[in-house]
What does this fold into?
Amino acid sequence: MPIIAPILQNPLVDGRQSDRAMLVRRGVQRLLIEMGAHVLPEVSLASGRRADLVALTRSGDLWIVEIKTSIQDLRVDRKWPSYRAYCDRLFFATHPGVPADIFPEECGFILSDGYGAEMLREAPEHRLPAATRKAMVLRLARAGAARLLAAEMAGVSIPALEGESEGG
It folds into this structure.
C-alpha cells in the first residue's frame, strides 16, 4: 500500500468554509452564472487577503462578493473595505437567518438560500484603474487555469464551457 495516494482529493474543494457559507456561496454562484458572469471562489488578492467570490461579468467588470453567515461574522470583519481596491462593485451575501439591515448601505446585498439567490440591493460602481483591472484579470485567469490543471491532474472531469472552442 503506497504512503502517498496517486490521486489526491478534489483540489477544487477548499475545506475552510462552513456548510452554511458553502450553501450561501452555491446560491450566489448560481445567480451570477444566470447573469452571465464567470465566478471563481477564494481568490487571493495582491494585499494578501482572500475574496470569497470574484466574478467577471460579460462586460468585463470585476465584482467581489463577501459571504457572511452571522451577525458576529460581519461585526468581527474589518477587512472588507479594502476589497474595494480590487473590484468595480462590492457585495455582501448571506442567508435568510441574518438580518439584511446590518449590512453597509455602500455595498450591494445578495440573499441566498443555497439553491438560488436574489440581488436585493445593487452595489454602487467604483471603476478600477486600468492597471489594477489588468492585474486582477490576470490574477483571476492564472488562478482559474491553475485550478483546472490541478483538477485535471487529480482526475476530476471538467466539462467544456458553452461557447468554448473545441477544435480551433
